[in-house]
Design brief:
The complex is a heterodimer of chains A (about 500) and B (about 475).
Chain A: H1 8-16, H2 22-40, E1 43-46, H3 48-64, E2 74-78, H4 105-112, E3 116-121, H5 160-167, E4 173-178, H6 184-190, E5 193-196, E6 216-221, H7 224-234, E7 264-268, H8 278-293, E8 297-301, H9 309-324, H10 342-353, H11 356-369, H12 375-398, E9 401-405, H13 421-425, H14 432-437, E10 441-448, E11 454-461, H15 466-480
Parallel strand pairs in A: 2-3, 2-4, 7-8, 7-9
Antiparallel strand pairs in A: 1-3, 4-6, 5-6, 5-10, 9-11, 10-11
Helix pairs in contact in A: 2-3, 5-6, 9-11, 9-12
Chain B: E1 5-7, E2 10-23, H1 62-74, E3 82-83, E4 86-89, E5 99-102, E6 112-117, E7 123-135, E8 139-141, E9 150-152, E10 159-165, H2 172-189, E11 201-210, E12 220-225, H3 228-247, E13 256-260, E14 265-268, E15 281-282, E16 289-290, H4 293-301, H5 307-318, H6 322-329, H7 332-342, H8 347-365, H9 376-387, H10 393-406, H11 410-417, H12 425-438, H13 440-447, H14 453-464, H15 471-482
Parallel strand pairs in B: 12-13
Antiparallel strand pairs in B: 1-2, 2-10, 2-11, 3-16, 4-5, 4-15, 6-7, 7-10, 8-9, 11-12, 13-14
Classes of the chains: A alpha/beta (about 500), B alpha+beta (about 475).
Chain lengths: ~500, ~475
Amino acid sequence: MSLLNLTIAGAAQALAAKKFSAVELTTAHNNAIAALNPRLNAYITVTPELALEQAKAADARIAAGTAGPLTGIPLAIKDLFCTAGVRTTAASKILEPFVPPYESTVTRQLLEAGTVCLGKANLDEFAMGSSNITSGYGPVENPWKRNGSDAKLVPGGSSGGSAAAVAARLALGATGTDTGGSIRQPASFTGLAGIKPTYGRCSRYGIVAFASSLDQAGPMARTVEDCAILLGAMSGFDTHDSTSAERAVPDFTAALSRGVKGLRIGIPAEYRMDGMSAEIAALWEKGILLLREQGAEIIDISLPHTKYGLAVYYIVAPAEASSNLARYDGVRFGKRVDGEDLIDMYERTRAAGFGAEVKRRIMIGTYVLSHGYYDAYYLKAQKVRNLILRDFNNAFDKVDAILTPTAPSAAFGLGEKMDDPVTMYLNDVFTVPASLAGVPAMSVPAGLSAEGLPLGLQVIGKHFDEETVFAVSAALERAAGFTALPSVRAE
Amino acid sequence: MAYSLEGKTGTWEVVCGLEVHAQVISESKLFSGASATYGGAPNAHVSFVDAGFPGMLPVINRECVAQAVRTGLGLKAQINLVSRFDRKNYFYADLPNGYQISQFEHPIVGTGDVEIELQDGTIKHIGITRLHLEQDAGKSMHDQHASKSVIDLNRAGVALMEIVSEPDIRSPEEAGAYLRKIRQILRYLGTCDGNMEEGSMRADVNVSVRKAGEEFRTRCEIKNVNSVRFVMHAVEAEALRQIEVWESGGEVRQETRLYDPARGETRSMRSKEDAHDYRYFPEPDLLPLVLEEDFVAGLKAKLPELPDEKRRRLCDDYGIPFYDAGVLVADQAMADFYESVAKGRDARLAANWISGDFFAAMNRTGKSIENPPVSGAALGELLDLISDKTINGRIAKDVFEEMVETGAMPAAIVEAKGLRQVTDTSAIDAAVTQVLAANQDKVAEYKSGKDKLFGFFVGQVMKAMAGKGNPALVNEAVKKQLG
């Protein structure tokens, strides 16, 4: 049997039944990575020896009968999570030599659950991007191809490496982070499930910060169930993160079989934007139909401030980023380019270490926080952010979950949409509002485009009600019956 | 008489407000578990949070918050149950994150009031605008290497309280009195050691000048002044400079200046081109700081008695003068020492002894109230010996010196040296007879009206009795024999 084409749930069962060992499972993935990663560039750093060690330890746990549902499961870790002793770059040249002496809380919890780290997945530099082309370590190729075309497509971003790795069978699952859609959009572009949980559900400790008030870790995997298993291990209160929520973590997998009968699903009018492609509109209609058929009540709702979401996001996120990235100054860690004096060293180090998109966002962020502009931009954006949150709260008085498309299009070609940054930013139009409101949102593969590319639907839930998100997503997944596979994948 | 400065164009009033940065006494730093103790090898007290490593997050230290609340209560200030942290962004090598976490718009403590006393006994109130919590930066050293600067981050992240006064201060004396009073309150509360030499307390001094009846004119801020004396000098030096600028037809520019104690002048610190735009915004890594009323009430209940209250109580409880009480409460340990001596004894006598011989001995021996030249118990015993007339005041001074020198207890000294006061009237009479007989000429002068000689006879008798005569009885006997 192929050890690559499994779900996490399936692999765990097989490991428990001793059909194969964790070492065999990991070796198969190490080999697959060795064969395909040079082409896809899904990993920045691979850790085959470490993975084997961890797999051996997992086998010992399995033999001892102390294994959990993730013991021996090989994962790709987005290279934004600090991993003790393993280089962590955030896909930036400025962190090229950085080996953290500490482990992020999320990856520590995953390691304690017995997972195996195959390597550090590529991403947009500092998670700033929607196509993975801003990585300082080269773009990632989407394993999916348009029908009859060999053109390279982007995997989405910023968790593009995580998405490509899981889609191409170079990992059973992956960690991602989502600031404005960085889990959901690449999941949609690569036919995967991916959830951004409620802000505060996962600790941000040890995750290289992009925009602190928006960043959340989450899983990406081939099924909704796998995401539920992974999120269970990634979640929980952490005394090291003041913004993590002091709440019990429910058994997310228990929600998968709830179904949607009697659930009220909101369809926000404002997401039917001018120029929405017929394909995306049709997919959305299909999703609505599938949920209705399973007994959900479909309710038209309004999220009136949706149209301001992108503008607010592209003020708040760069503002926080401009401050968060000030620490990359060449003084204590990472790259340093010496200069005439301190200021010169800063300028040379940051000029050489940061890519164009990161510089652009630092400039935007610095500008919107500047004296005389703060009120007009940052403060105004915060006020509108509150209105967007209120929109969701009002909506959730009437509905249990909201269904929307995940992205305005299928994966696009490498080199497309590069003309101006704003076109690229439009990718996040459906994902950004949930980020601003801090509510959980999941992308589920629901169909293929006319060109044969995967398309996702987004399920948005109430704060800390990931269970309903999982219930709706699982129902959608079952009904959609998405089974297509990418053309580039390890066998 | 209010303080003012004379210029060519008339009389100028000085307007001053102080921003006091006080390092919080706490085990660990404001947002990390690293030790906040002073000293240690460079970079020995640095966590990854302090060093601004990727993915590190601040977590507020409850004790630092409690210290700020205690200080706010000590300053009779409003405690804000909801406050918020902001980032103050600027680049410097000893500021690891590229921003300082501070409180800009919503400080933990609001308006308060501090009472100061001036030389002439005047009491004046200085308003407190606010107190906020913030992180200290690290230390840059430029003299350790030929071409490089070295950075010590031990101090980076240590909690500071910034205490901002209203522009209520009108003279160098008031500035000094205010700073000393703040330091005294912080020390009483145990929230800051007030040690300006080690830099655990520093002041930014805002100064402007104006003619009587005018609105405030432009002010300048003199940064990081590190002694009470320098603050007082800086106020005057800066005021004089500004007067000269105004009177020569110029205009004072709002700017940051430094005080140079060697030259006794202030000078401009940075040009306008370098003026910082700190880009303050709410710290997204921290939730708003919300205090429970019970938390504040609990701290309030356990607040120590503060200097103003203690001073009034000492006056009331012990009947000592307001001025003396002020001297005793200057230092909490001193006041405790006084009370340990005065309790159940002649409290005025205790005050006189402590502010007299005891202070003198402390200065002379270089000892402190924590390690006093004589213990409270010993001094108490000495006072008891005076009160029960075992010894007289004159002998007591000798006994005290002996106590300072040898550490022996006073009763033992009195016994060993036979210093008991003589109350035996026949012995006194005999001594008086002897003295009068030896000074017949003086007796004659006395009898012819030179009353002042009475003291001379008393002194001679005491001398003859090696100082041990009971002064009242000696007086009486001299009077009787002189007829």
